[in-house]
Amino acid sequence: MLVVWMFRRIGRQVASRGARWLLYPITMVLAVAAIGGGYETVREALDARAYPPPGELVDIGGHRLHLSCVGAGSPTVILEPGLGASSADMSWIAPVVARDTRVCVYDRAGRGWSDPVDEPQDADHIAADLHTLLTEAHVDGPYVLAGHSFGGLYVRDFAAQFPDQVAGLVLLDSTASRVRPSAVNAQAPTVGRVLTVVPAVAHLGVGRIIASSDYESLPPDIQAEARANASTSRQLASTLQEYREGATSVQQASALTDLGDKPLIVLTAGTGHNPTWQSAQDRLATLSTNALHRTAADTTHVSMLQDQADSAAASQAVRDVVASVRSGKPLPTR
């Protein structure tokens, strides 16, 4: 009704035909924005009630992070999802690993149910947040850390900052190749400008449109929850914040140069990568004297987590590292 009223007012009070034709589309855009914004506000409120956090919200000093732990035993496994991902992306792996030991998944700042923050989201900050989270939640180490994609940077940084708290590592198709800081830093102004408009665009429901066709290979009871969380402005902003700090995170993660004989498995997706990526994965496997580099055949970077069959290789890699930590024996060569 308001749109009709505005059109009538324009028709009556704007004498120039050209001006009227200019104002009509502007009015329509504003109307669509208002409708989209209202719809998204209602949907986010409904989603918050429909999908409460499965774990606990832990105050780590100024903001809360979501943490969910299942299973029993030690060492505790901490799963770290990649860029743009949340704890939901680990929904195939976590229950399988929980058959053997305690496993915890969490959402970084701005993801899932965790609060957003204004500070830089580079590897040092993310690893420090995780350490504080585990301390405040009384989750004792040392831990087996498993990181996918960008998450591999963050678990390597954690191992560099808190070596005594790490019993083993699993790098799941982890970001590893050297990134020229100048190349990524050149994109920083563009990413910064995008960050300023993300909240407004997300509030119009754009994030919901993007997420509507994703997560179809996750467990059926998780799909809607994952889409709801991925649609929020805070998750889109958090993804861009981490991307903007990508070159810094790569440099920070490179502080880890030697794991000694702590078990390490590097698992690489067998599909979709060039020889440069494969070589970088080989180099990651040199971080420990007790390391294996496996390739998951017919598996992509995404399906390694989100597909039930393809995630089996990732789950097995984590379980093998846990077994090696418990037994004190070298990793199996199979």
UniProtKB/TrEMBL annotation:
Organism: Microlunatus phosphovorus (strain ATCC 700054 / DSM 10555 / JCM 9379 / NBRC 101784 / NCIMB 13414 / VKM Ac-1990 / NM-1)
Name of the protein: AB hydrolase-1 domain-containing protein
InterPro entries xrefs: AB_hydrolase, AB_hydrolase_1, AB_hydrolase_fold
Keyword Transmembrane assigned: yes
Residue stretches spanning the membrane: 21-39
Domain AB hydrolase-1: 75-177
Keywords from the named record: Membrane, Transmembrane, Transmembrane helix
Entry's Gene Ontology molecular function annotations: catalytic activity
